[in-house]
UniProtKB/TrEMBL annotation, chain A:
<feature type="transmembrane region" description="Helical">
    <location>
        <begin position="204"/>
        <end position="221"/>
    </location>
</feature>
<dbReference type="InterPro" id="IPR001851">
    <property type="entry name" value="ABC_transp_permease"/>
</dbReference>
<keyword id="KW-0472">Membrane</keyword>
<feature type="transmembrane region" description="Helical">
    <location>
        <begin position="98"/>
        <end position="120"/>
    </location>
</feature>
<keyword id="KW-1003">Cell membrane</keyword>
<feature type="transmembrane region" description="Helical">
    <location>
        <begin position="157"/>
        <end position="174"/>
    </location>
</feature>
<feature type="transmembrane region" description="Helical">
    <location>
        <begin position="227"/>
        <end position="247"/>
    </location>
</feature>
<feature type="transmembrane region" description="Helical">
    <location>
        <begin position="259"/>
        <end position="278"/>
    </location>
</feature>
<feature type="transmembrane region" description="Helical">
    <location>
        <begin position="284"/>
        <end position="303"/>
    </location>
</feature>
From TrEMBL, chain B:
<dbReference type="InterPro" id="IPR027417">
    <property type="entry name" value="P-loop_NTPase"/>
</dbReference>
<dbReference type="GO" id="GO:0005524">
    <property type="term" value="F:ATP binding"/>
</dbReference>
<dbReference type="Pfam" id="PF00005">
    <property type="entry name" value="ABC_tran"/>
</dbReference>
<dbReference type="InterPro" id="IPR003439">
    <property type="entry name" value="ABC_transporter-like_ATP-bd"/>
</dbReference>
<dbReference type="InterPro" id="IPR050107">
    <property type="entry name" value="ABC_carbohydrate_import_ATPase"/>
</dbReference>
<dbReference type="InterPro" id="IPR003593">
    <property type="entry name" value="AAA+_ATPase"/>
</dbReference>
<protein>
    <submittedName>
        <fullName>ABC transporter ATP-binding protein</fullName>
    </submittedName>
</protein>
<keyword id="KW-0547">Nucleotide-binding</keyword>
<feature type="domain" description="ABC transporter">
    <location>
        <begin position="259"/>
        <end position="502"/>
    </location>
</feature>
């Protein structure tokens, strides 16, 4: 295999695995920037993966080519709906954020597998999705020598979309009034309050956006990697996304970069075989690597990177 | 007759069963500067909180320009042209000054994008007009307390308020900055804006205000025209008795060195903030450190108390070295510390009063019995200090965060003095404290001195330094530029030295 093919394979596999992490870590960024710790990303991904799988399996015929993209959005919508639980618990009832997030993580897989069994005659796994968010070869651009081959041949469309979304998220957080206010309630809610910013509203929005993006992440996972939904569809990706957010210093672009890195780690079992020198290693190591890397990164960076000052703190408005 | 812009009628505010404001009425005219005077916990901030939409009234009505209004949140207040500068900074340390100023009222360009350049221009114009020196690009966490205060003022100016409420804006300012602020007040009043101004400094009321409303325990005691009323009279109305303004200094043995700082260098954000500084404090002595804010005083104190790394030099306390030692080992060496910023350094706001009062002994007997907190003792200890130090609070169990600003300060002072330190470091110990309580805190500090303790006092309040100190050193740009005897100096001379004029002194001669 020549160099450009090897690179093309590594890049496209990395992107495929990175896409769900990018969406979800962006979701985490919104929530935590508004001051709500979100360990429930995993649960939100499960809901997104489940709902989008069911939707595409039910309506693929009716929707034709648009089916994967519509069900992708459906995943986001259900993730958003699911995150209402977290918002209500933490913002309105001032529950501990970690506990609420953990509840989400325990609730989501149980609920979704239960529903899967109801929908599919007791089977814990949905049938295979015939039409997922696959890879595309961009006409025209793929003709560019070398670059065309590496970046635009059999590449993951949704991953490029994720990168664009990351840039948009950065713009929203750092260039718009909405973003400034959202960040302010995560830094010093009392100060935001004196300026007439509705702390509760912005925190709700932060969590709901995070649910939407987490749902999208889950949907991508189901529709471009596992191509079905079962209990093992989402296996730690939510936590990797959380790690990516921390690694990326709660900044959308940083989170995206970190997510791509984790994507690379996750794609090791597949691409390991193509990388000269690595092909001899027992593939078990490649399977373990993403999780190991996540833990190492968290240990190294969690202490050092400073998140939003009021992240995880409930705000009680005195009347 | 000038127009009445604000009228508050029979305002009552209850927190639970406690009446913080009890049937208060006041009015504010156009172009007027109205002072609110009252002891700590009298209810001034609470009253203004209702006028700025942060708190809801229990009963009573508020009229703006003659029309009754319902103030549900700060947006409403802004809509009626009310801008409030809060007693405790309402700033976001991680944001830039610019972001802090525009937050909530961001100018938008092209539909979504914040027009930072436009905002900056507007702020620049305001800062030229009112001579408010601020660095809009700096992060708030990196700027001095004085500049933070200016940023708060700019926030109100930027919102084009017509009615300004200033809740103790001068508590953390240097005399120069206060003078500047008074100029701004007058400029605003001349433009026809109205100002309500809370302060504990009677001099400022005399200087700036037209009328003064005196409040005690949530009720209006009197409203007076400033012309023709003396500072003493104002103080008397407020605390209900006459005040003394000197302390009695006993002759004590001042031979033994307690704090010995030699050739100290301290760096912050890779800037050398304390340069080759040497300083000694003896038993029975109060050494006052005067200086304009930001000349290394905070870094000096942080280095001694272990809050900040020392670059080079030595710090000896009672003959033992304490450079870069853990804070606990320094406190255990008998160092009491009243920090400059009570809210972020001195107190843990959500914890109860009693818990805050035990922050220095919670791990020792009798507050701690084999790892378990002895709340019976902690609460009792708390009640005792509340009584001894006259902290105004309903109980020792309520959170410190709900105390009035001055009473929060008293909590810190109480804890530190009660720990019976050999060396007491006090940074602006009476910041935001009413005159009655200032007298009391001064007495306490002086008593510590009279009983042979060493005291290092840093203050922007020249009167405080002059009144308490046995010796005054002046800091400028991280160095001690002179040492003077408070009995032979005036605030003017001190002011000159603080501005950086070098004076040949004993310490420097000795060094040469
Ligand atoms: N949110 C709250 N809950 C309970 N009590 C409160 C609350 N806010 C203020 N208080 C109490 O109301 C009283 C008045 O407080 P306020 O802050 O208005 O005093 P102040 O006059 O501004 O004093 P200072 O000069 O010390 O700032 C105090 O006894 C305080 O403990
Ligand atoms: Mg107050």
């Amino acid at each position: 295999m020549n160099l450009s093919t090897t690179l093309m394979t590594i890049l496209s596999t990395t992107l495929v695995y990175a896409a769900p992490l990018i969406f979800t870590s962006l979701g985490g960024t919104f929530s935590e920037r508004s001051g709500i710790v979100n360990v429930g990303l995993e649960g939100m991904m499960v809901v997104g993966a489940f709902s989008s799988s069911i939707f595409t399996l039910s309506f693929a015929n009716a929707l034709g080519d648009a089916a994967p993209w519509v069900s992708f959005l459906v995943g986001g919508a259900f993730g958003c709906l699911f995150s209402v639980l977290h918002a209500v618990a933490t913002v309105s009832f001032r529950a501990d954020h970690i506990i609420s997030g953990t509840v989400l993580n325990m609730l989501a897989p149980a609920l979704c597998v239960f529903l899967t069994r109801i929908f599919y005659d007791g089977k814990g796994q949905t049938p295979e999705i015939s039409q997922g968010l696959g890879t595309v070869t961009v006409p025209g651009l793929s003709k560019i020598p070398f670059i065309g081959k590496v970046f635009f041949t059999q590449t993951s469309m949704v991953a490029w979309a994720a990168i664009v979304v990351a840039i948009v998220c950065w713009y929203v957080l750092y260039r718009t009034g909405f973003g400034l206010r959202l960040r302010s309630v995560g830094e010093n809610p009392a100060a935001a309050d004196t300026l007439g910013i509705n702390v509760y509203r912005y925190r709700y929005l932060g969590v709901l956006i995070s649910g939407f993006l987490g749902g999208l992440g889950g949907a991508v996972m189901a529709q471009s990697i596992t191509l079905s939904f079962s209990i093992s569809t989402i296996s730690g990706q939510g936590f990797m996304a959380l790690a990516a957010m921390i690694f990326g210093k709660w900044n959308p672009l940083g989170a995206m970069g970190a997510a791509v890195f984790f994507g690379l780690a996750q794609s090791l079992p597949i691409i390991g075989a193509y990388i000269p020198g690595l092909s001899g290693i027992n593939s078990v190591w490649f399977q373990v690597a993403p999780y190991l890397i996540t833990i190492i990164v968290l240990v190294l960076f969690l202490g050092k990177s400073v998140g939003p000052a009021a992240d995880g703190e409930n705000y009680i408005k005195s009347k | 007759m000038t127009e009445t812009v604000v009228e508050m009628r029979h305002i009552t505010k209850k927190f639970g069963e406690f009446k913080a404001n009890d049937d208060i009425s006041l009015s504010l005219h156009q172009g007027e500067i109205l002072a609110l005077l009252g002891e700590n916990g009298a209810g001034k901030s609470t009253l203004m909180g209702m006028l700025s939409g942060l708190l809801e009234t229990t009963s009573g009505e508020i009229l703006i320009n003659g029309r009754e209004v319902k103030m549900k949140n700060p947006r409403d207040a802004k809509h009626y042209g009310i801008g409030m500068v809060h007693q405790h900074f309402m700033l976001i340390p991680a944001f830039t000054v610019l972001e802090n100023i525009i937050l909530g009222d961001e100018p938008i360009k092209g539909g979504v994008r914040i027009d930072y350049a436009g905002a900056e221009k507007k702020i620049q114009e305001l800062s030229d007009r009112y001579q408010l020196d601020i660095d809009v690009h700096a992060k708030v966490r990196d700027i001095t307390v004085g500049m933070q205060q200016r940023v708060e003022i700019m926030k109100a100016l930027y919102r084009e308020a017509n009615i300004f409420i200033f809740d103790e804006p001068t508590a953390a300012l240097t005399p120069q900055e206060i003078e500047q602020l008074m100029k701004i007040f007058r400029a605003l009043a001349d433009e026809g804006k109205s100002i309500i101004f809370i302060t504990h400094k009677l001099k400022e009321i005399k200087e700036a205000a037209d009328r003064c409303v005196v409040i005690r325990s949530g009720r209006v005691i009197d409203t007076v025209q400033i012309e023709g009323v003396s500072e003493e009279r104002l103080a008397e109305m407020m605390v209900g008795r006459k005040l003394r303004n000197t302390v009695e200094k006993k002759v004590v043995d001042q031979k033994q060195v307690v704090l010995d700082v030699q050739q100290l260098n301290v760096e912050k954000n890779s800037r050398l903030m304390v340069k080759n500084l040497s300083l000694q404090v003896h038993t029975g002595e109060i050494v006052g450190v005067a200086g304009v804010d930001g000349n290394g005083q905070s870094e000096l104190i942080d280095a001694i108390t272990g809050m900040q790394k020392i670059k080079s030099g030595s710090v000896e306390i009672m003959g033992k070295h304490y450079e870069n030692k853990p804070v606990r080992s320094i406190t255990e060496a008998g160092v009491g510390y009243i920090p400059e910023d009570r809210q972020t350094v001195g107190l843990i706001l959500p914890l109860s009063l009693a818990e805050n009062l035990s922050l220095k002994n919670y791990y020792q007997k009798p507050a701690n019995k084999s790892g378990v907190l002895n709340y019976q003792y902690i609460n009792e200890h708390g009640r005792k200090l509340i009584k001894d130090f006259d902290i105004r609070s309903q109980s020792e169990q309520i959170s410190v965060g709900s105390l009035s600003g001055g009473n929060q300060q008293k909590v810190v002072v109480a804890r530190e003095i009660a720990s019976d330190p050999n060396l007491l470091i006090a940074a602006n110990p009476t910041r935001g404290v009413d005159v009655g309580a200032i007298e009391y805190i001064h007495e306490m500090i002086n008593q510590e001195r009279n009983s042979g303790k060493a005291i290092l006092l840093v203050s922007f309040e020249l009167d405080e330094i002059l009144k308490l100190s046995d010796r005054i050193v002046v800091m400028h740009e991280g160095e001690i530029v002179g040492e003077i005897d408070p009995k032979e100096t005036s605030s003017q001379e001190l002011g000159l030295m603080m501005a950086g004029k070098k004076v040949q002194t004993k310490t420097q001669e000795a060094a040469n």
